[in-house]
Protein: Serine protease
Organism: Nesidiocoris tenuis
Amino acid sequence: MYFWLLVVAILTFADAASLPADPIECQFLCDETRCIENSKRCNGVADCDDLSDENGCVDSKCEFMCDVTKCIENTRRCDGVDDCADLTDERNCLEGVDTGNETAESKTLHHILPFLRPKAKELSCLGGKNEPGHCVPLETCVLKELIEDYLKYRGYFCVLENQSVGVCCPQNHASRIKRQTTAAPAIVNIDETKKEPDAADVDYTYLGEPDVCGFSTKQLSRVSKPQAAGMRDYPWIVALMTTDYFHYCGGVIIDSLHILTAAHCVPPGTLPDKLIVRVGEYDFRTSNDSQVADFGVARLVVHEEYDTGTYENDIALLRLKEPITYGIYVQPVCLPTRKQDLENDFRNTTAVVAGWGTTEYGGPMSDILMEVPVPIWDQDDCVESFIQTVFESAMCAAGKEGGKDSCQGDSGGPLVTQREDNRWMTIGVVSWGIRCGEKGKPGVYTRVNQFIPWIASHLSY
């Protein structure tokens, strides 16, 4: 009898010892199937697939997005360490900044980060084969070795005086003046022989949906400040999301099968099957407020000369798997295809930018569609506002005194204005800027009218 009691006691003790001392408690629910501890919240690591564990954090370590799965503190930006594993945290660091006296946040450009202009002075260096050269921006010295084997010849990389990444260009290598564009992603089917006709010689007024585009009861004159838009004000705006329903960019309906957005919203390697285009959205917190519908993406068309370093030609088209059905909450916008629109630089024109982006730099995304009126700047004033290059195919728009600007999460969305016939047309695509709403630092937008021939050449696919 005592023997069996002893056996039971030993087995009970062994079972208890095999159990974890502190069972994991479900403290934060990512979704219906996954739960994590509170200690994993706001630690800069995406433990939840949708990054919900890093949203709404006070003193969050998630301040700079390397990509949709990795986030780091701003203090790890521009510190000479490749924390993102793709150098994105070490690119585009402002020159002439004393890193000992200013926070990393004050040095960081906001949602889009083009390379800085290189200084005139070039730095002497030794290349990957120990040959003498000068440290110059990569796009001005495209080496065959780097194209063939990036890892093997990584010794060519150097750091410019402005702390951006350069390449040690051999002295006998002729540097190119024109910036070289990056290779298009494999998913983009490009017809290299297709020529874009001169816009002045072709009638493009057929493009898009000219008979039904741009209709809204919204009046431009009634948009005077940053505010929540009306549910039916901008029926052409779309939310670009991942298949995990992570909203990260915007876009605009130009016909029943095509969305116009920014090239940087679908960077090289983006797969169409991983994207969702949501139309008819207004308030992400509710499910029955408007005619919401989600569409899969069949094909991405990124501009063949889009430059990931400078954001030149920052424009792309998404072809949907199924056509959009129009309704009171879903309509296409007009393209600037009339002769007067193609020739217009839109300076001093008041436009509206709308989206679900943050309402302040580093703040949370908005659940409700927001709108803000912004005047188009004179191109000379636009160019002089930045040390970064602003190309002729881009324009600036923002309140002159600050406070009126697009912000993080608005990328790819439309900049629209109202024509004299009261119909709305898109004239810009949200591209990049420095922080948000700062005086003298406007948002930069891709000029849609400069790309009408390119759009026309791809809508027929």
